Amino acid sequence: LALALALPSVALENGLARTPPMGWMSWERFRCNVDCQADPRNCISEQLFFEMADRLADDGWRELGYEYINIDDCWSAKQRDAAGQLVPDPKRFPSGIKVLADYVHARGLKLGIYGDLGIFTCGGYPGTMLEHVKQDAQTFAVWGVDMLKLDGCYSSAEEQAKGYPEMARALNATGRPIVYSCSWPAYQGGLPPKVNYTILAEICNLWRNYDDIQDSWDSVLSIVDWFFTNQDVLQPAAGPGHWNDPDMLIIGNFGLSYEQSRSQMALWTVMAAPLLMSTDLRTISPSAKEILQNRLMIQINQDPLGIQGRRIVKEKSHIEVFLRPLSQGASALVFFSRRTDMPFRYTTSLAKLHFPEDALYEVQDVYAGKVIGALRTADNFSVIINPSGVVMWYLRPMALPVQ
Questions:
Q1: What is the C-alpha radius of gyration for the chain, rounded to an integer number of angstroms?
Q2: Quick check: is 39 catalytic?
Q3: pLDDT tens column, 309-326
């Protein structure tokens, strides 16, 4: 009861992240590489973030909505300064975070930073203990930070229950709009009764529910399995200003094939997931870039209704169908193959997928970009889905002919 009464005071409603945040994040691709002597090009340093900001601004990403450049762990010095303040590593970030933020803002982008509600960050850098919450929020605001990811290593469940709402209040109190990404549910198993998604949506703009993504198809599948197995709990929790975060897009790295890359993008889009890429934008392949810069895909991901999609069919043939309702009566359908043998011809109808009777839809193939034609709810159709691949459709309702 006390928690319920306290709710209005912790409400985050900061007007931010009305659609899932999009941008770039250092962790999955660059991790905690701090050896700038041996590997200056790939270490966690201001140079890396300056260069990624240039790529987002100059290579067509910014115009599509990829606006955040997010620093993850291992950016700070190993100790706070004499005033107890977090400071960036002087060798790797000699200009300071404020200068980096100014540079990022000048390029029409936003800067994200990483903290950890605990004694240390996961990488062993100074954490944000409860007594430091207000000070750190103020520091980030003064630096010009636009997004905070607050991790949960080296903290207890009690500290997290106090600290995550406390940071929401502290960020709001700075007067600077800062999107708040929490790792809280991931440290509590991601599910009720330990995680209360109603309260979480009042505190955080997005939250990590589950394990860190790794550069492998197995990792992507484990995340997809967990999210859709638990969709009855997770799906209602998402909406404008508060999103489930299945973690970064690893398209453009080493672990996914072309088909698997297309699948990750489609499934994250249907989940209304934040689109935070973690790849080297300086060397990204044209095919990976094409997947990540698909305009219709991004339009679907950023749909203003903000409804998270669901898995609606799971066939014995290892074909799965996912549906996301969109604004103006439109829908996104993803046909996903878990098969590993050969392309599979899957036949169904919109009626079988619970679309309204007697409706007529214009069907557009999201990856091909082409309008396939008009489809009535009762019509049978077939799609050919490659192994570990997807076919994704955008369906727009058309006026029905007068009977």
A1: 22
A2: no
A3: 999 999 999 999 999 999
Which listed residue (89, 151, 245, 247) is catalytic? 151
CB atoms within 10 A of CB 345: 9
Joined tokens for residue 53? 């900001």
DSSP state letter for 82: T
Q: Delineate the domains of the chain, giving CATH numbers in brackets.
A: 22-302 (3.20.20.70), 310-397 (2.60.40.1180)
Segments of the chain with pLDDT less than 70:
1-12, 399-403
pTM above 0.90, yes or no: yes
The answer to whether 341 is a known catalytic residue is no
Give 1's contacts (C-beta < 8 A, 6+ positions apart): none
Catalytic annotation, pick one of 59, 102, 212, 365: 212
∠391-392-393 over CA atoms, to 5°? 125
Environment class of 35 (CB within 10 Å of its CB; exposed 0-12, middle 13-18, buried 19+):
exposed
Asked whether the beta carbons of 326 and 332 are under 8 A apart, the reply is yes
Stated as kind and residue range, the H or E segment containing 312 is: strand 310-314
Q: Long-range contacts for 224-230 (Cβ within 8 Å, ≥24 apart)? A: 224/267, 226/190, 227/271, 228/310, 228/311, 228/322, 230/190, 230/191
Do residues 205 and 243 touch, judged by C-beta distance below 8 A?
yes
